[in-house]
Amino acid sequence: MHNDFLQATEMYGGLFNNIINSLFGERSDMNKLLAMKLDSIIDSVIRSRIASSTSAMHLEQGELKEMVIGNRTVPKRLHQLKYAIYRNKDGRYDNLLNGDGSISNAFLNYLIPTLATDSEDGGIDAITLLNSSMSNSSNFENRLIAYFSDLMSSENEAVRRFANRLALYAYYTSYDNKGPDTFAHLISSQFRLDSGYADNVRQAIGDMNTGQWLNNVFNDLLDEPTLNSFPSIALIIARNNAHDPEIVKNVVKPKSSKYNS
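and the corresponding structure tokens:
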């Protein structure tokens, strides 16, 4: 979906400048790398709101947290699925095994569950990749997309349901941005079309080009696009990046004295 650029719309320039002014004040202090970083963050916030408004991709409150923390996280379920495939009780996973007993689906082999007991992330489970997605060839990634798609259309209901859950995990842990350990870009175009997400992104782009109100992106109590004012987006960026001093500047409280108490 990054062939469809929100950044190319008429409205985005005003939105971007407003966020800069809200977070940093003067734009002149911003270097190119920080501008690119902020651009990616804004893009992610918009896309996450579009996804959340897409019924097939909507997560209930607390559901994203449950994907990475607790007993039923997606990484734990991935670990359990791989173990179940290796065991292959009653031949349930015959079509996912090679003759030597190894997993035949290259996409499953590409994903490495990293559980909290094995990490230093304070109880957060994660999925890492066999190798960085930034160094993959297009042919290799096309194969991974095909293998992921196979899982999502599997005749095995448990595999199919987990694969669709895995797609949501991939999306919401990266917000459709490609990085070394993200794999949302491997979600098939068919899933994006069938879920309605692709159409909703294109609709948002069209509306942003014509200055229309975006119910699934803007907050009608806070935002005012006609004035290039988008405080709801600035607030969520500040909240989600509170520990990043590049995005949210630390304000040092002056020492108390008889002159400032």
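(Above: one complete record from the training split.) Strands lie at 111-114, 126-129.
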